[in-house]
Amino acid sequence: MEEFCKMLPKVELHAHINGSVSESTIEKLVATKQKLDHQFSFKKGSTATLKECFEKFRLIHQLTDNVDAVYQVTYDVIQEFCDDNVRYLELRSTPREVTETGMTKELYVDAVLRAIRDCEAENLDIEVKLLLAIDRRNGVQVGQDTVKLAQKFRESHPDLVVGIDLSGDPSVGDGRDFIPVFKEAKDFGLKLALHLCEVPALQETMDLLCLPPDRIGHGTCLHPEAGGTQEFVDTVLTHKTPLELCLTSNLIGQTVPDLDNHQFKFWYEKQHPCIICTDDKGVFSTSLTEEYQLAAVTFDLSPNDLWRLSLDSMNYAFCEEHLKEKLREKWKAAKPGMEKQFNLKL
Ligand SMILES: CNc1ncnc2c1ncn2[C@@H]1O[C@H](COP(=O)(O)O)[C@@H](O)[C@H]1O
Ligand SMILES: [Zn+2]
């Protein structure tokens, strides 16, 4: 199964750049700093609180406080996903400014886009897009600025900047405050991927679900058994809003009690669009291959099921239809070799 999941062409739609930074990139970055001796990720099998997860991002942000580091992290993350046979990747990141190093939010996004372009120029077998993230801790004004920034960069890079993400500590603020900002983004043609109900959030959820977003991140507590409501479930089903599901992230962050109770099962059994994602492959010491494997073992999925999951994920990408068609050819091309190697019919 491990080999099958590795060889499988995959689609990653939920990856935060700074949470995806690998140990080897951390080592490069630490070498440029003095006196930095921290643990930047969780070991396999460990558990934490969401607060402790956010503490890791704060530590990583100290390393990526300049444009060279942001470029390096983005470049390395793309290479690593490509090595993991991810053929289509949507990265998301929160533009940050750091006065001391002269990094503005524009320069931040510029560094990310340069790294994507440089990987393109190397003809890597991966297509990469970018979503700009709104950190809910930073309030509406910053959210508004982020959408403006996304509009600006979409004009200069229409093929790369595809959407807006809402993320950050789910226990902070009220997502409804951002609704005008999301509507503006939508009007401008930007897609919306919102972290929703990562923890129980009765107040804001319904209004956000009714936007509706183009995809939901986590949706851990949407269903009644997890603190949500039947109305939430029905709304998601009606809109057919795809869910980005990140097993290891939810397990380490303890937003689910164990994998058997992960919301994947609930939605997958309803044949609702589910996308297996990593969230933060660096911080949670995982890879998309490992997430597929974990899903297979936990929910008793066959190679055929996994094949379907990865190929169907392409349907929910924020790119143009012609690119989706082109990418589906990769699955077609990989099929005979995989059927032969694993002695099965896909
Ligand atoms: C674990 N579950 C999660 N829930 C909510 N937001 C998360 C997250 N994991 C990551 N982020 C968001 O992504 C940022 C790091 O990447 P960037 O600096 O943007 O590239 C974090 O600071 C947080 O805002
Ligand atoms: Zn996330």
UniProtKB/TrEMBL annotation:
Give the Pfam families listed for this entry. A_deaminase
Q: Which GO terms describe its biological process?
A: adenosine catabolic process; inosine biosynthetic process; nucleotide metabolic process
Recall the GO molecular function terms of this protein's record: adenosine deaminase activity; metal ion binding
Say yes or no: keyword tRNA processing present.
no
The Adenosine deaminase domain is annotated at 9-330
State its cofactor.
Zn(2+)
- Reaction it catalyzes: N(6)-methyl-AMP + H2O + H(+) = IMP + methylamine
Q: Subunit structure of this entry?
A: Monomer.
Q: Which family does it belong to?
A: Belongs to the metallo-dependent hydrolases superfamily. Adenosine and AMP deaminases family.
What protein does this entry describe?
Adenosine deaminase domain-containing protein
| Organism of provenance | Magallana gigas
